Amino acid sequence: MMKRILIFSGLGILLLACGRPSPVRPDVFIKKVETAGSGLLMKKEIANVMFSVQYKPVDYILSKELMNHSLISSDLEKRRKQLDGYRYFTFRVKGKDEKDPVRIGTLSQEEYDQKQGYLSSDIQRDFLLVEGKDSVPCSICHYEKTYGLSPFVTLVLAFKDSENRNKEDNELSFLYQDHVFGAGNIWMKISTGDLKDIPTVNFN
User: Fold this and answer.
1) Residue 106: how many CA atoms within 13 Å on its side-chain side?
2) Percentage of residues in the chain with pLDDT exceeding 90?
3) pLDDT digit string (tens) for 154-184?
4) CATH of the domain at 167
5) Is 0.90 topped by the overall pTM?
6) What is the span of the domain harbouring residue 48?
7) Mean predicted confidence (pLDDT) in 53-73
8) Range 146-149 contact pairs with CB under 8 angstroms and sequence separation of 24 or more
9) Does residue 49 lie within any of the structural domains?
């Protein structure tokens, strides 16, 4: 009887292990997160403008910082504590003509300057993250200024964890309410399955 219990217990552990992605190296984790097939990199094209949203789990940020040597292994847990409590994203806008996307539909330098000012100080309120029944406003928004020298508009965003963060049946819905590029409301989603498929990272 005892042998039978041990066999079933072993099978149960094995099945649980098989249901979880195996731990991966930091460089492998970065590539997985940045692959469109992961479901964590979302894209939508509207009127010749490409909008993309990259979800960045805390382990992704730690992996990137370790790989570019801005973080050392001994400070890993300290840095994790600084990052915990938020969900992080990179939001990017790209024009198909490879020019500064802020100039799309812009008729004067004055209008261009107004849009740049909006991106620097007001765009934070245009982002919302929906998880379950919780709608979470953007807490941190950093606009990476390139002074018109890049074909991208890039913003780094952070949203405080919702009360539903650890519920397994929730997907993430990302909303951008556009007031700059003429695209209106843009919704992008990360499915529950894609969130569950995020592997752990072996930092050893």
Assistant:
1) 19
2) 66
3) 999 999 998 767 666 688 999 999 999 989 9
4) 2.60.40
5) no
6) 23-196
7) 95
8) 146/100, 148/100, 148/102, 148/103, 149/100
9) yes
| Residue 3 resides in a domain | no
**How remote is the C-alpha of 108 from its chain's centroid?**
33
Q: Quick check: helix, strand or coil at residue 86? A: strand
Is 8 a domain residue?
A: no
Q: How far is CA 36 from CA 24, 73, 126, in A?
A: 18, 29, 24
The one-letter amino acid code at 120 reads S
Q: Is residue 60 assigned to a domain?
A: yes
Q: Hey, what amino acid is at 139?
A: S
Find the distance separating the first CA and the last CA of the chain, reported in whole Å: 40
Distance CA 193, CA 201 (A): 18
pLDDT-derived band at 132, boundaries 50, 70, 90: confident
Tell me whether residue 84 is exposed, middle or buried, using C-beta atoms within 10 angstroms of its C-beta: 0 to 12, 13 to 18, 19 or more.
exposed
Q: How many domains does the chain have?
A: 1
Complete DSSP assignment for 119-160? HHHTGGGGEEEEETTEEEEEEEEEEE--TT-SSEEEEEEEEE
Q: Give the H/E segment covering residue 42.
A: strand 41-46
